[in-house]
Amino acid sequence: MVHIPNAIKEKARAVRMVVFDVDGVLTDGTLTYSASGEEVKHFNVKDGVGIKLLNQYDIITAIISAKSSAPLQKRVEDLGITHFFPGTKDKWAVLSQLMDELLIDSGEVCYVGDDVIDLKVMRRVGLSIAPKDAFWMVREHSDLITDAEGGKGVAREVADIILASRMPLEEAYIKAMLPEFEELKS
Fold first, then answer.
1. Is 133 labelled as part of a ligand binding site?
2. Are 14 and 133 in contact (CB under 8 A)?
3. What span, in angstroms and rounded, lies between the C-alpha atoms of 119 and 137?
4. Could you tell me the CA-to-CA distances from 156 to 47, 49, 53 in Å, in that order?
5. What 8-state DSSP symbol labels residue 135?
6. Which CATH architecture has domain 6-177?
7. Would you say 115 is a known binding-site residue?
8. What does the DSSP assignment read for 123-153?
9. Which helix (H) or strand (E) holds 18?
10. I need a surface site. Which of 56, 72, 162, 179 has the fewest CB within 10 A?
11. What is the pLDDT of residues 131-181, one digit of tens each?
12. Rounded Cα–Cα distance for residues 152 and 30 (Å)
């Protein structure tokens, strides 16, 4: 895990909701199409564990994506993510409405994004995180850059950062070791 400065640990400790972009964060950003034109996406199982752990510790997770696809819909269902906004053009407007509904302040939000469409949100939340291979401008405006590249465990690393700000990670992972953890939707 990347070294976390104390100022970032403080921001992470305040987080009540983590919002993920998809392409370039939960995937490596590659677009693959089958012979019939169906979109194929590759997700990292480690990210699923991280997202489920966040939910187990009462940290709300959400996905706001500019794109919509059947593979993404299936992944969201598998993880039990209830705050899902595909095909979003104005991510800040959607997030603002969600924060109002959940009574969450922008300082209590962590946003994970990788491209310029995410900057409007990243500049307004308490903690902004970018994958190692995010667009250079996004990296410059992020509080933290992960060791992981998009689609290669970014969400798991973010979960570790948030949880480590609250407890020893060994303690946090006790829940992931329980047999019923694999059956959890969130």
1. no
2. no
3. 9
4. 5, 7, 9
5. -
6. 3-Layer(aba) Sandwich (3.40)
7. no
8. TTSSEEEE-TTS-HHHHHT-SEE-SSPTTSS
9. strand 17-20
10. 179
11. 999 999 999 999 999 999 999 999 999 999 999 999 998 988 988 888 877
12. 12
